Amino acid sequence: MPEEGKLIETNIVDVMKMAYIDYSMSVIVSRALPDARDGCKPVHRRVLYAMLREGLLHNRPFDKCAGVVGEVLKNYHPHGDASVYDTLVRMAQKWVMRYPLITPQGNFGSIDNDPPAAYRYTECKLTSLAEELLQYIDEDTVNFLPNYKESTTEPAVLPAALPNLLMNGSTGIAVGMATNIPPHNLGELIDVTCALIDNPAISIDEIIQLLPGPDFPTGGLIIGREGINKYMRTGRGSVKMRGVIEVEESKSGKEQLVITEIPYNVNRANILVKIAELIQNKQIEGISDLRDESDENTRIVIELKRGEAPRIIINKLYKHTQLETFFGVILLALTKEKRPKEMNIKELLNCYLEHRIEVVYRRTQFRLRKAEQRAHILEGYRIALNNLDDFVRIIRSSSDRKIAKEKIINKYGLSDKQATAILELRLYQLTGLERDKIEEEYIQLQQIIAELKEILSSEQQLLKCIKEEVLDLRKKYNDPRRTKIIKEEGHFSVEDLVRKEGCMITISRQGFIKRTAVSSYKAQKRGGKGVIGVRSHKEDYIEHLFTANTHDCLLFFMNNGRVYMEKVYFIPEGSRTAKGRSIINVLNLQKDENVASMICVSAFSEDKHLVLCTRKGIVKKTNLSAYKNLRKGGLIGIKIDSDDQLEKVQLTSGNDELVLITEKGMSIRFPETDLRDQGRATRGVKGLTLKKPHDKVLSMEVVNKTETLLLAGENGLGKRSSFDHYRKQNRGGSGIIAMKSKKVTGALSVKEDDEMMLLTKSGQAVRIPVKEINVIGRSTQGVKLVNLDQGDSLIGVSKVIEVEDE
Q: Helix (H, G, I), strand (E, B), or coil: what is residue 40?
């Protein structure tokens, strides 16, 4: 049983609360947060101090890291060896530290997150810059504390001739708080420090002019100043970082992207893996090769396929990989009183400057004491040398040292230290030359004492001394900024990078799609042979021909009535003779789906409508806004009968007139107002009754009185007719003859100054002006549009649109 009075009753909640608070403060003060004065956590400070005591200076040989780790564990840091060695390694890694404090020898890991070799294999020593943090530590510049076992002492803080916290940054997670301080350029920090010395009332805006932002060891880009300005003013902010991607031309003439710099704290190997995954999953297309040519410097090469736009690929890389990431800044550090405080940039700089003032003041006091002590001894020497014969007589007449000292002190009023020093003088110091040296040293000491006293008595002189020292260090350690700060682009999308231009989109019978710039085709005279538009591949030929501009939204209406949407610039680009890419790699098509019609829209306005027409003459009108929320998997655009297919879709105003043309040359014209708006998933109503056997609706055009209706037959003949030749009828009738031809292959509403594209089954493409085709009667055969080889036929016509390049 415990003795009476030794047992204290208390609430377990209170005990747990106090224990957790004690633990929290221990973590905050002794482990996780850096000191605002020297920028070091306790483990960093102990490693550097142990290396100094081991004599591992920058101009001396390397020594094993195992020895350093052992020394730190033995005397200063009673924790695991892994934490000490990890700290040592990080202070040597040039991709982690903007200004490394340890010079490594051996395998210290890599930016690809390769682990370092064990500490029994690696060696290290301090850098000359690290020695600046430790300089004058033996001149009573900082307080020393007992170590954990009270066998020796360790510094409570380093003298820190440089603003280490801001030049190298720091990261730490404590209990209930965290710090994340980015590194900065040393030259810029020294400029700010000097400005702060000259003007203590300097504003943060003026500081930002001298210290524009972080300077990461891995270089890269910082996008925009908003995050920088915020953390400098408040202590918190988010900085957008990007890697540097350059566009080069390979030996084969292809364009390639070269990643030369990556964002800070990003694993280079992970970037490679992620890019490979994106290519494999077809999230990024247009890349033909990916290889890592990095050594100490980053060089990741991404070879592009011919015709791919580099800027689009670059934007996708930034969007889907860590080549664009954020650095969340939290300027949290321990103050002189060991209290965690979130500060702005000026407060952090003031912490360093106040610490430096105290260090230089204490160093000056120490040097003054040493100088005065030496001057005191020299004063005794001078008295002894001026009375040398008497001193010799007193010493010779004394029976021992003690009596001689007493006689000297009593007769000449010397101090005990002076008398002891005189008695220890060597005979050679009594020569004339040595006497002159003592006198010269005494005069010099008097000058030094006067200068030191002036520094201690004048804050202006003290600050001048600090400024001169940091400017000397600037000349020694300053280097160019590595991270560039560029303007924020604002709201950024792929479309911003895409050149706006006219293009032709083709879809082959076997489902290959591509877009080709309209400028690839030169205008020719009517009746020409044309140029190769696309080569035939195993009996494949072009089935759909469409023109658009790169910024349009392209709606794909399938033969079964489903509709998909994609931006035109996402359609794979190819040359005139290229086969194209399978449409299943562009759209998430279902089984047995084929493209029936395509519509380009720039916006999903409620003032516009879509009219859909099937091969059997069924038509349906739906408001365009009903299609604005298209999903990747598509939506139902119209319900189709099992024996029918969707044929054509037109964009209308709601008050237009429509003309339906069949493959056998029949047509019907009726007002759009005969159709009421229906939902997407509905069947529609009859627009045309098919009378001729095996006939089907070929096309549907919107009546425009300023245009003419162009019809083309598979025999290469074509004509233009005025819409006035097609009288208005009631919806659902059998219509009138539009063209005398066995098979009509194309129908377009065209203007006089339009150009049209003709495509044959063999792959020939002819681009001709519309004005070269005569306007003739409704029921005629027309004129020759294209010369066809034996067995060839005309399979498609499309209007060419021209858009001024941006």
A: coil
And the tokens for 36? 């605002």
pLDDT of residue 521: 59
- Enumerate residues 6+ apart whose C-beta is below 8 A from 38: 45, 133, 157, 158, 159, 160, 164, 165, 355
User: Are the C-beta atoms of residues 69 and 88 closer than 8 Å to each other?
Assistant: yes
**pLDDT at 489 (0 to 100):** 63
Q: How far apart are CA 613 and CA 648, in angstroms?
A: 5
Query: What is the 3 state secondary structure string of 105-116?
Result: ECCCCCCCCCCC
Residues 111/295, Cβ–Cβ less than 8 Å: no
3-state secondary structure of 14: helix
The per-residue DSSP string of 63-100 comes to EEHHHHHHHHHHHT--S-HHHHHHHHHHTT-TTT-SS-
Q: Please enumerate in sequence order all residues whose Cβ is within 8 A of that of 35, keeping only pairs 6 or more positions apart, or say none.
A: 41, 45, 157, 165, 333, 334
Q: Which residues contact 86 (CB under 8 A, 6 or more apart)?
A: none
The phi, psi pair for 636, rounded to 5°, reads -80, 125
Query: Which pLDDT band, with edges at 50, 70 and 90, does 493 fall under?
Result: low
Report how far residue 665's alpha carbon sits from residue 684's, in angstroms, rounded to the nearest whole number. Answer: 23
Which residue, 38, 39, 42, 25, is CA-closest to 177? Answer: 25
Residues 49, 121, 381, 726: which is the catalytic one?
121
Helix axes 186-198, 459-477, angle to 10 degrees: 160
Reply yes or no on whether the pLDDT at 20 is more than 80: no
Q: What are phi and psi of 691, to 5 degrees?
A: -105, -40
Distance CA 157, CA 708 (A): 88
Backbone angles phi, psi at 14, to 5 degrees: -65, -40
Alpha carbon separation from 385 to 104, 410, 421, 437 (Å, rounded): 55, 17, 12, 12
Domains parsed from the chain with CATH numbers: 244-322 (3.30.1360.40), 498-800 (2.120.10.90)
Q: β-strands 221-223, 484-486: how paired?
A: parallel
Give the whole-angstrom CA distance, residue 521 versus residue 544. Answer: 17
Angle (nearest 5°) at CA 134 between 129 and 135: 90
Q: Which residues pair with 620 in a beta bridge?
A: 612
Task: Check residue 669 and give its pLDDT.
Answer: 92
Q: What are phi and psi of 507, to 5 degrees?
A: -130, 125
d(C-alpha 601, C-alpha 117), whole Å = 60
Q: Which of 388, 389, 396, 392 is nearest to 435 (CA)?
A: 388
Query: What is the Cα–Cα distance from 111 to 171, expressed in whole angstroms?
Result: 18
Q: ∠ CA(48), CA(50), CA(51), 5° rounding?
A: 65
* DSSP symbols for 450-517: HHHHHHHH-HHHHHHHHHHHHHHHHHHH-----SEEE---SS--HHHHSPP-EEEEEEETTSEEEEEE
Note the pLDDT of residue 530. 47
Round to whole Å and give the CA distance between 669 and 700.
Answer: 10
Mean pLDDT of 259-276: 93
In the predicted model, is pLDDT for residue 721 greater than 80? yes
- How far apart CA 688 and CA 661 sit, in angstroms, is 9
* CA end-to-end distance (rounded Å), the chain: 93
Q: Which of 211, 261, 52 is nearest to 142 (CA)?
A: 52
Over 80: is that where the pLDDT of 242 sits? yes
Q: Is 85 a catalytic residue?
A: no
**Cα(646)–Cα(680) distance, integer angstroms:** 13
* Mean pLDDT to the nearest integer, 694-708: 88
The more confident residue out of 689 and 2 is 689
* Look-up of token digits 């490594």: 104
Alpha helices in 398-458 (DSSP H): 401-412, 416-423, 432-457
Tell me the residue length of the chain.
806
